[in-house]
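Exam review. A common question shows you a sequence with its structure tokens and asks you to describe the fold in words. Practice with the pair below. Do the first one on your own.
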Amino acid sequence: MNGSLRSFSYSHWPQWAAILMSIISATVFAETQQERVHQMAHGVMPFDMSQTVHIFKMTESGGVQKVVAKDPAATDQIALIQQHLQHEAEGFQQGDYSDPAQLHGADMPGLKDLQAGASRITVSYAALPSGAEITFETTDPHLLTALHRWFGAQLHEHGADARSE
């Protein structure tokens, strides 16, 4: 038996290594975009995705993105949401969409148009009792479409961590 293990270990190693790599690759690629976004979110957002929900509302002039704590008594999460969304709103007004690009990818629908057209989008922040919201407004039809595409992509990629309003 010892001889057969030694024989197996050396003579079949390349085949077993290839099989093992196939299994690992299949496992890695089986992860959905929603799962990837949920797992990577903490690198971009300081709050706990499983304790919060993203809410996207498209409007005739842009849209509203809210993040709220599922538990209104989770003051630690609410503070983190408010801090993060205030920071993001300031960046978005300047055309800095690097956090969403880091999480969702630089080719996210609408993102490049929003970066380029930042001077034609009004971005405002408001604290809410259970979180915060960012309002985006524009009169530019191209940017309105970009905002709606961007909201739709986020809604899709956040999966169970998001909903529309």
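Now try the second one, then compare your answer with the model answer below.
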Amino acid sequence: MSDVIAHIESIVGRVLLATMVGLVFIAGVTRWFGHPLVWSMDVAQLLFVWAAFLGADMAMRKRGLIAVDLFVRWVPARHRVFIDLAVGLFVLAFLLALAKLGYDLVMLNREREFGDSGISYALVTAAVPIGCLLLATTLAGQLWETARSIGRRPQLVFSNARPEEVDEALGEGL
């Protein structure tokens, strides 16, 4: 199931990016000819918001989000896994809270129009709860995978590297 979702996200992300580029290009050309498409920039911004959340989820699936590990870098591998789990649970709670608040925002913006496009602003704000739920689902799977791996070779939540690989790399760099 996860592979299917990742494949769909990849296709949708590529389509969103190509559509954004196309809309901005067409808007520039038509503006140069003196007939601007006022709505095209609004639609491109809407697509950008959705692409940002899809891209974040795709990066999280690959454990490729930027991580600040300055404070945990020197913690031994067997302890770092538990720190990762604790931080992951905190982030999961935050994403679920954002999803709930995002849903409330969508309901508040159903009647509001997005710029000159005539599109409901709810389509823009819907990216927040849906994107946060996608991220929360991915993170929950990674937390589960990490928790199950504790007895053997633990897998960090936010990194592709195994904790012992991190320890080895740090030992060589000293």
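Model answer, second protein: The first helix runs from residue 2 to 32. The radius of gyration is 20 Å. Full marks require stating both points clearly.
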